[in-house]
């Protein structure tokens, strides 16, 4: 029974990590209609920025803020200098650019920060909590991860549903020509979308790195699992991203704990194939309007 509980709690924390990254993918999709495959190395770079601040003797929270700010700026710069020149063309061009950026950022990070493994601090304990004299597989940092992802989801929902800025971002993504005719500054909205998505990605990188080892490739596997979580919940739904991350994290935790860790990647592929076959729009996809 304790093993079952610990496996489920481990999956909860892992799922929230996937959900954080899925939220970044959902945000960039809703605001620009592009899947950013460079999200992971962008988050990795900002995590190393935080590590530089920590190594300089400053507090974790100052490093946390520095990573988020650098993520915001990096997203805006990438949109302006890399993505903006191909806007208006086939969407596949931007996707290919993000794949190229994935490679470039990896190489630059290896040159600037090195390839060795480095320890990243955590603001809260990374030992299991004591409940009734029993240690469970939920740490203080795990609780912080859950709360951070839920707060981020709530803020994104409020942004897209209740603010004019969110409406302008969605209009710029779905139909930029009409949005321009209505007075929306599409370029600024796309830059803002990339910047906010990069900020959320930086948060995901910090949550993944907390209390563990980091190196330039430490987030590569998260690209796959975060993408599966986003597709599972629906690329248009922040709630779907969180639910998809939770379902995926718990499922993969049980596969690892009861079947074998070597089958985790295969299980994620099977889940992705099932979702694309049975419900391509994701679990939280809205029904398409019928045309008469």
From TrEMBL:
CDD domains: TM_PBP1_LivH_like (cd06582)
Keywords: Amino-acid transport, Cell membrane, Membrane, Transmembrane, Transmembrane helix, Transport
InterPro entries: ABC_transp_permease, BCAA_transport_permease
Domain of life: Bacteria
Cellular localization per UniProt: Cell membrane
Ranges that cross the membrane: 6-27, 34-54, 60-82, 94-114, 134-160, 190-211, 265-285
Similarity-based family: Belongs to the binding-protein-dependent transport system permease family. LivHM subfamily.
Protein known as: Branched-chain amino acid ABC transporter permease
Organism (species): Nocardioides oceani
């Amino acid at each position: 029974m304790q093993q079952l509980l610990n496996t489920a709690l481990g999956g909860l924390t892992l799922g929230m990590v996937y959900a954080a990254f899925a939220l970044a993918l959902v945000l960039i999709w809703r605001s620009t209609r592009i899947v950013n495959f460079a999200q992971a190395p962008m988050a990795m770079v900002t995590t190393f920025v935080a590590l530089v601040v920590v190594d300089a003797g400053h507090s974790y929270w100052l490093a946390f803020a520095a990573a988020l700010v650098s993520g915001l700026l990096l997203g805006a710069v990438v949109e302006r200098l890399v993505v903006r020149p191909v806007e208006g063309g086939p969407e596949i061009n931007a996707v290919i650019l993000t794949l190229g950026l994935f490679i470039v950022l990896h190489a630059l990070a290896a040159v600037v920060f090195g390839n060795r493994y480095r320890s990243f601090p955590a603001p809260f304990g990374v030992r299991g909590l004591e409940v009734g004299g029993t240690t469970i597989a939920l740490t203080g940092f795990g609780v912080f991860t859950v709360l951070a992802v839920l707060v981020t989801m709530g803020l994104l929902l409020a942004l897209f549903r209740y603010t004019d800025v969110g409406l302008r971002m969605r209009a710029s993504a779905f139909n930029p020509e009409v949005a321009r005719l209505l007075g929306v500054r599409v370029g600024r909205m796309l830059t803002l979308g990339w910047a906010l998505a990069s900020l959320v990605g930086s948060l995901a990188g910090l949550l993944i790195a907390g209390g563990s080892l980091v190196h330039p490739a430490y987030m590569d596997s998260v690209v796959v699992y975060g993408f599966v979580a986003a597709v599972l919940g629906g690329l248009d739904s922040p709630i779907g991203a969180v639910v998809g991350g939770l379902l995926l994290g718990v499922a993969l935790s049980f596969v690892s704990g009861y079947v074998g860790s070597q089958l985790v990647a295969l299980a994620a592929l099977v889940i992705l194939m099932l979702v694309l076959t049975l419900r391509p729009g994701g679990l939280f996809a809205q029904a398409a309007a019928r045309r008469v």
